[in-house]
Fold each of these.
Amino acid sequence: MEEPLPAWSLPTEAIDRIELPEAWPGQVTREWAWGGATGAGVRVCILDSGVETNHPLVGEVQQSIAVSIEADNVLIDDDDRAGDLCGHGTACAGIVRSLAPDCELTSVRVLGAGYTGSGAVLLEGLRWSIEQGYDVINMSLSTTKQKFASLLHELADTAYFRRTMLVASAHNMPVESYPWRFSSVISVGSHESSDPFSYYYNPSPPVEFFARGVDVEVPWLGGGRLVCTGNSFATPHVAGIVALMLSKHRELTPFQLKSLLYLTSSNVGGET
Amino acid sequence: MSEELRSAVAAGVLGAERSYRELLQSIVEVARAIFRAKASSIFLLDENTDELVFEAVAGEGSESLIGRRFPSSQGIAGFVLVSRQPLVIEDVLEDPRFSREVAESTGYLPEGLMAVPLLHEERALGVLEVLDRPTDARFTLGEMDLLGLFASQAAIALDLLQRARRAQSALAGEGDLSVVARIAEKLEQRREDDEGDAAAFLAALEKVL
């Protein structure tokens, strides 16, 4: 059996064994990053209000799951028929689909039981989604409750080390909320341009990237369409682009994905 | 609590609730004017019933809506509350379900709406909505920031309103705070007889807390 790759230290004789499967060019281009990619083979999870199945702008939804908590027990319904309770999850799924048409979409619904307990359901939904090993988790949700911060932080790090890229909406107000503030996730705010492939690296964190989030045409309930604005619509743009990158370069870790996003940002090396 | 102290606090609290309601009303009126919108409203989250309640409304449908309730996970306002994310819907292109649901929570059928959560410290207190701003101008992030500023102001007003209501219910002998009010009353009476022990106990309790 082949010796495992070094994990905790790097002896000189092991250097050859951590050679990366693909060398990056001196100048990384968008063409190299995702040129010709369709998102095929990449599993994207929409952690939100549910996703309407059979919406023409969303296409096939692989699975619909609902997470709830009753009497301290976490309930996972792996055949949720409630659809989308708001329209927002459908909108996010539609944006990801428009960028990465061949990706696999799964809906994990963590909304519906009201405000009370929503933080706990969000946490459990995220935990469950990370355990399933999705490649990308799109979450426009956050909590302001301090008591969930350290648990969410642990989950975000777990996702990062398991190669699940968490893409989360940043707040556009100076509010302490989680998990978007953690450095193991990609946090996304909005810019005003209408180009879905235009995204900017922000040299003044905590918001790391800006993507299209103003006047975005999105699918909504009942096969409908709306024009919406908000960071929660910028987030699935980045999730979609990450899905494209992963479908072309399967081996990329969250660290590498962030680096690649940076190198291909419109204000760094990417074409606008 | 002595009669004089009770009446002084009661006068302050009773006046406060009315003032804070006026402040909320003024916020929705100004929000409506600044955005040149048809209506604006503030919903307060009732944590006991997990419902959103109309607290202030300006413009269309304003008379009948105050006090009306709907589940906190419903529709746009519910999503904004739970997700803590503002949401702007500019244009309803095709909307088999959207209109009906939104009409239920706004009192009339808007073509577009802006909704922002009212956050105070780590709590989400409610939602501010602005309905039907003119669609001739493209929405900008500057307007989003403006909406956020209104939200901060409304959240402070809602927090004050809730405090005033809690103080009022404490004075009326209802709710958790009534226990604190009764202790204060007993200490006040005791001080009139013997200040030493009670003051020492209070100081020790304060230190522990």
Note: The longest strand of chain B covers residues 51-59.
Amino acid sequence: MKKPVADHHYHYPDPERRQLLRFIGMGAIGGALGNIGGVAEADQNRLHRRANSTTKPGADSDRILVVIELNGGNDGLNTLVPYGHGNYYDARKALGIQPDAVIPFDGSFGLNAALAGLHQRGLSVMQGIGTTTSPNLSHFQMQDRWYRGDIDGTYTGETGFLGRCCDAVKGDSVVTGLSLEYTQSPIIVAKQARTATLGSLEGATALFAKENALLPDGIAAIHKARTEQLSSLFGTAREAMRDMVILSNFLRGVAAPSKGYPDTTLGEKLAVVSRIIRTNGGVRVFHVPYGDFDTHTSQGNKHTPLLKQLNDATSVFLDDMQASGYGDKVLIATISEFGRRVQENDSGTDHGNGSVAMMAGPVIAGLHGEAPSLRNLDADGNLKPTTSYGDYYATLAAWLGVSDIVLGSPLPLLASATQANS
Amino acid sequence: MSSGNRHAEIAHILRRATFGPHPGNVEKWVEPGPEALIDSLLSGSPQRILPAAEPAAEPGDERWDDVVKGFFTNMHSANAGLHEKMTWFWHGHLTSSDQKGGPLAIYRQHKLVRSLALGNFRELLRRITIDAAMLRWLDGNESRGDAPNENYSRELMELFTLGPGNYSEADVRAGAKLLAGWEAHWPSQIVRFRPASAYKGKVRFLGRKIRAGKESYSRVVDAVCDHPKCAPFIASKIHEFLIGVAPDPVRTDKLAEVFRDSGLEILPLLREIMTHPDFLNLRLNRPRYAIEWTTAAAAVLGRSSQANIWAMTPLGQTPFRPPNAAGWPPASSYLSSQQMLSRLDVLGWNWTEENSALGQRLINSDDPAEEVLQIASLYEVSDTTRAGLVSAARRAQPWDIPNTMLRLALTSPEFVIA
């Protein structure tokens, strides 16, 4: 037997180089399939069967949901600007978006002009979204509720809102839901469906490097399911390794990157989402965390640029989906744990409640919902939401043909031809 | 007590209270025994801050790399003990990022945390409340009495001392007023109190009437430290870090009592936690944090501290770059498929040469499976893992032995769980 030569073990790349390597295509890494062990091989076959099946974009069961999380609490008032209201400029003396930087919906409200590209492509803006029961101004408490789809603070289940969507649409997919970050988010935790976290595609197929040829068999032997455990965590650890093999396998066949994505965090993430969607391998739900919208200070320098990056990356993504035949199959929706206080502090805004939710794709473009009053605020000086985020969540679920997984009723925001396939 | 169990106990103590074990350390402590090791850890001396010189204030200063490498080097050192482990704990608890504070501010904060990691909690909290990196990270720097910024006031109570539900929104607003007025100068990062930026007058905070002024930050810290929920909150978090589970209510009361009676001294609390039978008995009950896995794997592989700094991004635990004010996510999130992908990738960049001492030791062993378990300080091993290692060794050509065995062992459940 000839001694194999390892591919890449003699040099350490410096961090900058690693950054460059991220998201570069994986064709060069993949070699022969190798023996991946029983479970993974079966999954690989299923993936191929699926990819080669006649199910093309067009069938309802192929609808895809991409949720972009505006992490940190997006300022709804500087996203959907009440530019016709004097109260807004009184409260936002330093930070108010001036009328000339607004795309009007009507004489009262307009979109921050940073979102022009999305507006042009048809953006649905739902105002007054938030928690109508027991608001909480802690990021961590409200994120927890949004992640788990705990609308009124009484949900006690272990799955996340997107995880429940995945459970409902699972089908025969190898992977049904993906969260695009390095650490696991509770939002994607499912019971039956396989969901995974994926920070980048870098290293995703290290398993197939030449020098690792003996690993798949070893991993299959060590990480067998239903084997003895020294503690309850052993099962979790072994399952994570088995999922890693399946995920590696899945990602090895991923479609080539599309051109034109901006070189931003969100641009890179949406480029990965596009590659996975175009692989047509059955991933139905994506969670894409983005940004630090927690603009306590220097909001003027941060917030509009964050919206601009959202606009630029998502516009390219929408065009990419349109061009590759997925235009009517992919719904993009934003979530954020809360909005910001109406009254600015010295140079930023503190945690608030009501905010806006945005959707793009097959939606009814324009402004929806009832505007919360800028004068009749709650005891903490925050907007009183007019629509529960449960209703918004129910809308996203309905897009996937799913109901009864969250407390709320769907809103009429989806384009009529694609309303919930009931 | 069987000696196998004794080895496992020593390895367990070193996993939890240090960043090891380093190969050979377990054997060294078998004879003195677990109690002696715990004693030695509780009386160990701190490592010095690395590098000794301060970086410049501006982001992008080349010396910034040295600051991250310095912390990394200290954690990777075979001399890293309980002080180093608690420095990491406090960095995650009273956390800040260099991305808002810049290199010089975060270096000084790190120095402060190192100096009080086993010291007095009230003193640590007092000083970090007006620390330049913290003032920038949680926006105290831009808070003015007439337009107070609530960020630090809220996180001080929610994340640092009391936990949610133990204060009101009125307390958050009052705290913000009492904390306003402290500013870090740029680029010196010297912190000064500016009366013009402070609130004027008295406010009620956690039931105490406090007059705003230069000393009011200190009154705020006293009010949270004296709050009945503070001692149990801190004690419980440290217990979970070291023992893997939150203490039950009776135990929480006991820990809080010890902590309070000592005047919030950290070392007596650690002694109470580490000398309780639970510390030795509750093994393999929490995942290793990414940082613990990386340092322990590097120790096994005989790698220098700096080779794997880049890996902390995909592993999600870069020092001085916490994801948010809550620090890094709980241990339970480190057993994901993404973690396993990243870890396998990291091991891919840490090649063990055939002719290195480690390579030779594994190739020449009669039982490479047993050998790799010993090198990795794994003494409690499931039959499935052992059988998998044995069969992998049987099928491997000699040149495949070192890297195959090490990669399988370092991704086994036994090694990824603390």
Note: Residues 120-227 of chain B form one domain.
